[in-house]
Amino acid sequence: MQQQAQPQMIAGNWKMNGSFAGLGDFAASVRAATTPAELLICPPFPLIRPLIEAFGGAVAVGAQDCGIERAGAHTGDVSPDLLAELGASHVILGHSERRTDHGETSVLVHRKTEAAIAAGLIPIVCVGETEAERDGGEAENVVRAQLAASLPKNFAEARGIVAYEPVWAIGTGRTPSNDDIASMHATIRTSLGRQLGEAGGSVRILYGGSVKPANAAEILAIQDVGGALVGGASLKASDLLAIAAASRSV
Ligand code: PGA
């Protein structure tokens, strides 16, 4: 099946950062820029609506997590339906910080992904190995197992996105070699095909982990990299836009 070229996605993951102060300036800088990329910003829950308003529809806004069901007795969790009602378009799921801080397993990520899709959100499911797993030659097996356990069958139809984020590259300033990124993205592509059939070929695969203006062009040029999930560098509009300027159509 011939895929249509589309812009790479540059998704900002603000994590537990950001505040009401500064939101207007950030949004104004991003809105004023012309960028070849499809932009998405995922701030903390309370900033989703204000950021949507500040962007005026010019940039997509998403969440960093959602509940395992669409409603019910889950104290402290946020329903994916409520996020959709708020205007969020995407939700990051299974980020390694969720897995570490909250003990999230791929089984839980699967439930959240199903709930998000049912609510009409586009899930961005994160996978990635630890440094010990890479050193032990287990990186590809770990990622394959995470994909197998996390993704529901309708993932591709729901325009689901996979983010490959090696845990040891997040917030460390270290990145895998270009060859390692290319080979992991190829492994993910093969797994998606096996799990989801032909539709697996259309799933966007983002790279995440210490993407900065200085390394963006190199990383975004790698085969099968559909964009980037950016943490630290997404907090500054100028850095985010510099990364977006290095993107291309794929
Ligand atoms: P980083 O984070 O860009 O700060 O390394 C990426 C992420 O965790 O999504």
General description of the model:
The protein is an alpha/beta fold. Helices cover 39% and strands 15% of the residues. The protein has helices at residues 23-32, 48-55, 80-86, 96-102, 106-118, 131-135, 139-150, 178-196, 213-220, 237-245; strands spanning 9-13, 38-42, 60-63, 90-93, 122-127, 161-164, 204-208, 227-230. The chain has an eight-stranded parallel beta barrel with strand order 1-2-3-4-5-6-7-8, surrounded by six helices. Helix 5 crosses helix 7 (139-150), helix 7 packs parallel to helix 8 (178-196) and helix 9 runs parallel beside helix 10. The radius of gyration is 17 Å and the shape is globular. 2-phosphoglycolic acid (PGA) is lined by residues 13, 165, 170-171, 208-211, 229-233.
Structure keywords:
250 residues, alpha/beta, eight-stranded parallel barrel, 10 helices, 15% strand, binds 2-phosphoglycolic acid
Distance between the termini: 15 Å
Strand order of the largest sheet: 1-2-3-4-5-6-7-8
What's the alpha carbon Rg, rounded to whole Å? Answer: 17 Å
Helix fraction bin: 25-40%
**Can you summarize the main beta sheet?**
8 strands, parallel, barrel
Helix and strand element order: EHEHEHEHHEHHEHEHEH
Bin the strand percentage. 5-15%
Number of DSSP strand runs = 8
Q: Which class best fits the helix and strand makeup?
A: alpha/beta
Summary of the model, kept short:
The chain is α/β, with parallel strands linked by helices.
Detail the topology: elements first, then pairings.
Layout: E1 9-13, H1 23-32, E2 38-42, H2 48-55, E3 60-63, H3 80-86, E4 90-93, H4 96-102, H5 106-118, E5 122-127, H6 131-135, H7 139-150, E6 161-164, H8 178-196, E7 204-208, H9 213-220, E8 227-230, H10 237-245
Parallel strand pairs: 1-2, 1-8, 2-3, 3-4, 4-5, 5-6, 6-7, 7-8
